[in-house]
Amino acid sequence: MVVRVTENMKYNTSLYSLFNVQSKYNEVLEKLSTQKQINRPSDDPLGMMEILNLRTLKNSLTQYQKNIENARGWLNLTESKLDGAKEIVNRASEIAIAQANATASADTRRVAAQTVQQLIDELFTLANAKYGDSYLFSGSRTDTVPFLHDSLPATYDEPKGSPDNVFDGTVSGGGIYTGAKNNTYVIRIVNGGTLNEATYQLSLDGGKTWGAIKDDLDGGTISLQDGLTLTFVDSGSNRLAAGDLFYLNAYAAGNYRGDDGSLYVDVGRGATVSYNISGEKAFAGRDGGVDIFQTLADLKTALNSNDQPGIAAKIDSLRAAYDQLTLYQAKVGNIVNRLDMAKSNLQDLEQNTDELLSLREDADVAQLATQLAMKEVALKASYATAAKIGANTILDFMK
Amino acid sequence: MSIGSLLNTAKDSILSYQLAMDLTGANIANVNTPGYTRQRVIFTSQGKVDVGSLRVQVGVDVALVERLYNQYLDNQLAGQYQMWGYAQVKSDVLSRIEGIFEEGEGGPLDVLNKFWDAWSALSANPQGQVERENVLAQAENLTAALQQLDGDLTNLVKDLGDNVNQVVEEINSYISQIADLNVKIGSYAVDRGETNLLKDKRFDLLTKLSELLDVNYVEDSRGAINIFLRDGRPLVTGGDAWGVAVKQTQAETMGDIVYRDNPTISLKEAMVEGKKGKLAALYEVGESMVPAYRQKLDDLAFTLTEVINAQHRQGFDGYGNGGGDFFITNQGARDFSVAQAVMADAKRIAASSTVLGDGDNARLISNLKDSLVMAGGLATFNSFYTTLIGQVGRDVLDGKNNLNHQESLKEQFTNMREATSGVSLDEEMMNLIRFQMAYNASGRLVTTVNQLLETLMEMAK
Predict the structure, then answer these.
(1) Tens digit of pLDDT for each residue in B335-358?
(2) pLDDT score of B1 more than 70
(3) Do B446 and B13 meet the contact criterion of CB atoms below 8 Å apart?
(4) Interface of A with B in 143-162 (CB under 8 A)
(5) Most buried by CB count within 10 Å: which residue of A255, B50, B109, B282?
(6) Does B105 touch chain A (CB under 8 A)?
(7) What is this structure's pTM?
(8) From the list A42, A66, A394, which residue is nearest B397 (CB)?
(9) CB under 8 Å to A91, separation ≥6 — which residues?
(10) Taking 80 as the threshold, does the pLDDT of residue B49 lie above it?
(11) Inter-chain contact B360–A186, Cβ cutoff 8 Å?
(12) Which letter, b or e, does each residue of A2-12 get, where b requires 16 or more Cβ atoms within 10 Å of its Cβ?
């Protein structure tokens, strides 16, 4: 079949294929100049999704590593503070051993008592140390100084209401705290109204978990736990409203004002590590350990009163205190190991992610350069063809 | 037969070939005119002369100036223009949308990641004012990014609405011109080629109209082209153009299309359902695809608000108050924002899970990045948004591929039409030689007749 080939056909066909080659040439050129295989989602929608997912993954891997760095900093400081405390206990042991000796006199013991006081002060500084804005050893109450200078009997702070509370009556605590540990009780009003109408929930752990809804506010006094009560007096104007919060901090006997709460850090997806050592366990000796502050204070008293058996009796306690600190130092070491392992895993993962990302995203320059050369040839051929349009016509032969 | 009639024959011949050369000239001149259809002269012999007992046909006349076209190809081409117009606009608009979704520094995914990181950092230092302010700053970036994206899409739909108005004006202009041409073409009782140029012009208008919307057309016995929509409603009948107009129905939609003179009849459905022509593409992107994208953004905003608020309410702020709302939204992405109380005071961020000032609630909020709360429990916030970008990318790619396909089909159909109707300079040149030879021969005929006459005159001396 003979097809009439007209001028416009020649021109259109040539132009169409020229544009075709040019756009392919430009595609390669763009990849080369951006050094990216995928420059927009439509270049490769699935590839783009993979890249974005990998970027999200990489971002969280970076964040986990930052979390670990932060926890490592905290633990390093904890470790050095515990080490310092051990040193102090060691020196106190030496003093106790020396002064328990029959050769020691009332005078040497008085001088030694002053040294022990210095050791106690040093220990306070160590145990009340901060990392950033947070106290190292106050459990989850990171904004509370963990240790007081004086040991107190079991007590509680007067209950406080939240600033947002509607209730403008008074609330007061009562009873004697019999708990073994420091605790924070939180009352949350579920349904507001008069004391008769109102219902509430009690939390025994500072507000993390809540008990059943109760309505025994009628008399104004409710029992918390461990001997404490809370008494509401309605002013008659602004009554209890849903969401009103009241909390009461109760302290067991001793000088510790923190709690035994844990601080958690995420070191991977769904992997959480508790990284703090509560002063309650390491220094205050609750849970059946040694109260190091009390032991040092007792040593000082015994020295001052020239009580040789009393001094001798503290030698064992101090050894136990030393072991206790060593134990928590070892725990710190375990946590650090765990974090280091997690970090090395994260680094491996991040490297893998980087490689995958690069594989998906980065242009293969050698391959692209070859492609570019090929497209260039095609482009030149197209130009050469385009320039030939109309070069051969019958006009050349009509003279 | 007389010598005088021989002279007449020569004259007819000269005039005919002159016309033929005129037409060749016209073809050459219009080699690049869009829509031009080549023309050729159909010669016919004329007159009868008795020579003795013989009756001979002599002389030549132009019976017709023929316009060379193939109705079937013309129909195909007009149909292809509809497909191409649709593919072109869809691909163009989707590429713009892809630009809007361009993900980089400050894009929704980037700020979403930074948002989670900010919570993680706050959990490590819940007392830190800097960390609290950073959570607020990242939350604001996140709400701004989603709002911006939604706003850009809304503006795009407004632009598409403006485009619809322009297209409707063009439609009205084309159909009234076609109706005028119908009248002019119909006014010739016998058509010997006088309407050829008018028909060219009409065909050009028809392809332009086809680019815009889905139409069918038929040529009636009087040569008029009648144009109908899919549902049979007319746009052009003979000399009448049925003008159309945009009728705004409600805000945020692109409106309906109705007859200018009868706004109760909705034409939009018939114009767009065939997915042909620019108009259909504008409506499809503006009323179906963009709203689907925006719905996803709204889903994201609503779920972020719901899930983060739920966890935020579990915690306690820096004052010992129970946590309130963190995000607020009523309509989705367009009014997604950080709650006023938190915005005014960073200490209001409920970072603690107890009243004691720990950072565990912030940690739990940062963990929400991994919870499968989107798409019916199948996706995280990040993967949901990533999938949206993937979907946009796929839509754009489909649009581009379709455009490439339709472009090459259009190219093919155009060439097929050109093969019949286009001008070939080589052909015209050869015609020119042919006609020139005939013209020269006719001239020689006149000279010969002249000599005959002179011979006669000499005889009469």
Answers:
(1) 999 999 999 999 999 999 988 888
(2) no
(3) no
(4) 143-144, 160, 162
(5) B282
(6) no
(7) 0.86
(8) A42
(9) A115, A119
(10) no
(11) no
(12) eebbbbbbbbb
Q: Mean pLDDT across the stretch A345-351?
A: 95
* Count of Cβ atoms closer than 10 Å to residue B55 Cβ: 9
Note whether B85 and B276 are within 8 A (CB).
yes
Q: Is A274 on the interface with B (CB under 8 A)?
A: no
Interface of A with B in 361-390 (CB under 8 A): 390
C-alpha A317/C-alpha A295 separation (Å) is 7
Domain boundaries, chain A: 7-56+360-397, 79-151+264-352, 156-252
Of B125, B369, B414, the CB nearest to A60: B369
**Nearest one of A67, A121, A61 to A92, comparing CA atoms:** A121
Q: Residue B371 phi/psi, 5° resolution?
A: -85, 140
Distance separating alpha carbons of residues A187 and B322, to the nearest angstrom: 11
Q: Cβ–Cβ of A63/B116 closer than 8 Å?
A: yes
Partner-chain residue, chosen from B113, B367, B423, that has the shortest CB–CB distance to A59: B113
Q: Establish, for the pair of chains A and B, how many residue pairs have beta carbons separated by less than 8 Å.
A: 200
- pLDDT more than 70, % of chain B: 97
Place of tokens 């005929």: B445
Do residues A201 and A190 make contact, with C-beta atoms less than 8 angstroms apart? yes
- Spatial contact of B49 and B1, defined as CB atoms under 8 Å apart: yes
| Alpha-carbon gap: A375 to the closest alpha carbon of chain B (Å) | 19
If one compares A345 and A132, the residue with the highest pLDDT of the two is A345
ipTM for the assembly: 0.86
| Long-range contacts (CB closer than 8 Å, 24 or more residues apart) made by B32-35 | B32/A7, B32/A8, B34/B204, B35/B200, B35/B201, B35/B203, B35/B204, B35/B207
Q: What is the CATH number of domain A79-151+264-352?
A: 1.20.1330.10
Domain ranges (residues) in chain B: 3-68+425-460, 73-99+162-283, 105-152+288-393
State whether residue B121 sits within 8 Å of chain A by CB: yes
Distance, in Å, from the CA atom of A285 to the CA atom of B7, rounded to the nearest integer, reads 139
CB B311 within 8 A of CB B302: no
Number of Cβ atoms within 10 Å of the Cβ of B436: 14
Contact (CB, 8 A) for B295 and B288: no
Distance CA A140, CA A259 (A): 6
Tell me what the mean pLDDT of segment A251-265 comes to: 88
